[in-house]
Design brief:
Elements: E1 9-12, H1 18-29, E2 33-38, H2 42-54, E3 59-63, H3 69-83, E4 88-91, H4 106-133, E5 145-150, H5 163-183, E6 188-195, H6 204-207, H7 209-216, H8 227-238, E7 249-252
Parallel strand pairs: 1-2, 1-4, 2-3, 4-5, 5-6, 6-7
Helix pairs in contact: 1-8, 3-4, 4-5
The structure holds nicotinamide-adenine-dinucleotide.
Nicotinamide-adenine-dinucleotide (NAD) binds near residues 14, 16 and 94.
Length: about 270
């Protein structure tokens, strides 16, 4: 089978940078029309849309805050007004507000949960509603719709100093699996990706210079990941090649979740 997303429409949240940007670009390369959601950086989002259009693809940009229900409704409405259908949601937006527990403010806790978990819920809910109301197109995709949640290795690995972030990603795991159980019979396919250390804006301090050497000790495969490593997996999870993959988290982490501290007998 050939991997193709032709005639499919994908919405990627938080796609003006990092992993989301790479996912939107890769989905377009695989043939999908892409709605590029951005929160605050219009310029790179517009540049990506221009690049996709210049290569013969279809793309729009749409601003919006995924933690706000009215914004999510607007993001979906704009996508559907342009493309008419939705086949793929990549719920990617996320942020960190790190602090040790004694210094973590309630505002920092809430901000991370609102974007990383509530934002994923709102977008998934809107996508499921859309998948249910549109006509099935089995000649285009075996599934009635596909959702890919962007989680993290920290849905599994506890992370001191980042309890809000780790809790949000632990929540994404149960959101994803519970939703998969709920909507699977409707042929709506739900999965997640748990990236390890991928060099992007979110973790510049730990992926460059001396900090990178320390980080590499946590990665058995011996390299820091690139956004494209995640995007390649997203394209596969969005395609019919993974049609029997449902309710699964794919760890794209160079082995970070293999407890490398135990390599030398712990
Ligand atoms: P990034 O900072 O480049 O991307 C995050 C994106 O989310 C940005 O484009 C940002 O504008 C957007 N965003 C933030 N708040 C938003 C909001 N309220 N509404 C809409 N968009 C919003 O970092 P990234 O590494 O590309 O992160 C993408 C996803 O991957 C996040 O969910 C992150 O938790 C996850 N992740 C990243 C890594 C890594 O090592 N980079 C590891 C594990 C998980």
């Amino acid at each position: 089978m050939i991997l193709s997303l032709r005639e499919q429409v994908a919405l990627v949240t938080g796609a003006s940078s990092g992993i989301g940007y790479a996912c939107a670009e890769a989905l377009a390369e695989a043939g999908a029309s892409v709605a590029i959601n951005f929160h605050s950086q219009a310029e790179p989002a517009e540049a990506l849309a221009d690049k996709i259009r210049a290569a013969g693809g279809r793309a729009i940009t749409v601003q919006g805050d995924v933690s706000k229900e009215a914004d999510v409704k607007r993001i979906f409405a704009r996508t559907l007004a342009e493309f008419g259908v939705l086949d793929i949601l990549v719920a990617n937006s996320g942020l960190q507000k790190d602090a040790p527990v004694s210094k973590m403010t309630l505002a920092d806790w809430n901000a991370v949960l609102e974007v990383n978990l509530t934002g994923q819920f709102l977008c998934a809910q809107a996508a499921v509603q859309q998948f249910r109301q549109q006509d099935r197109r089995p000649e285009v995709s075996r599934a009635a719709g596909k959702i890919i949640h962007m989680s993290s290795v920290h849905q599994l690995i506890p992370w001191a100093g980042h309890i809000n972030y780790a809790a949000s990603k632990g929540g994404v795991d149960m959101l994803m699996r519970s939703l998969a159980q709920e909507v699977g019979e409707e042929r709506i396919r739900i999965n997640a990706i748990a990236p390890g250390a991928i060099a992007t804006a979110i973790n510049q301090e730990s992926t460059q210079g001396e900090a990178a050497d320390k980080l590499l000790k946590l990665i058995p495969y011996g390299r820091i990941g690139a956004a494209e490593d995640v995007a390649n997996a997203v394209v596969w999870l969005a395609s019919d090649l993974s049609d029997y993959v449902h309710g699964t988290t794919l760890f794209i982490d160079g082995g970070m979740s293999l407890y490398p501290g135990f390599r030398d007998n712990g």
